[in-house]
Amino acid sequence: MKKITPIIFQIILSFSIFDCFIINRASKAFLPIINEPNQKELEFTSIQLGKTALQLIQFGQNEEAIKLLTLALKLNPKEIDLWISIAEAQIRSNKKYKALSSLNEAIKLNPEEESIYFTKASIYMDLNNPQKAKTYINKALSINKNDARVYFQLGNAELMLNNYESALIAFKKSSKINSKFWQSINNEGLILYELNNSKEAKSKFKLALKISNNAEPMLALAIVLFSSDNDSIESIKLAKNALKSNPQYISKDYQAKQLWGKKLQKSAQLFFKIEEMKKVVQEAKEKSQ
Fold first, then answer.
1. pTM higher than 0.85, yes or no?
2. CA–CA distance, 34 with 49 (Å, rounded to integer)
């Protein structure tokens, strides 16, 4: 779909507002008689603006969506969905602190909405503040103790804080609630490998791989097979497919962002240096640049 230009956007917005704020002219008067919109009309307009903004967000036009949602909130500041929507646009525009402020307004309107605390926790995770994130994760869990996503996020926060045992407990709770949540199962494997339990780590990576043919458990399994079993044939086959799927895993920085521990990163570097992996590694580096 073609991008809506600012001029066209303004025209659409003008017509939208004009339709809702009706101006009636008296037939024999010099000045128009203005019918001021009532609260229901304001609320209806704000909701329509919010719907349009959501479409803009879907098409990546986050700045335009923010402008539209700002107007909608002036018309109807007590609509919680508008605050959540503008926070989403602000997050996508890398305006994380503004998004936190918007979410605070949403909390004032509904302090028992779990998803708001989850989103705040996710922002703090992106800001590399896992301790602060835990505050909102625990708040979300106090509202709903049966959300696999929240336990997964808790596990990630604990992992960033190097609290391996606590992280493992959180990931196990997540995968117990949702047995198909391969990310939690995969992260159990990451921790088990750091705790020198290669056998259980392999089991977790294999299980995660059965659920989702994702590059991360595929490459992690390849590395563990090579480092613990010296199974170079299967390892190289898995690694080739993994790096073809996502060549960014060749980077130590990217591995660290995915919360790989020091031991797994070191094992990866040793594996990448073997003769059979040189061509694969070089191709992955070229693709990831």
1. no
2. 22
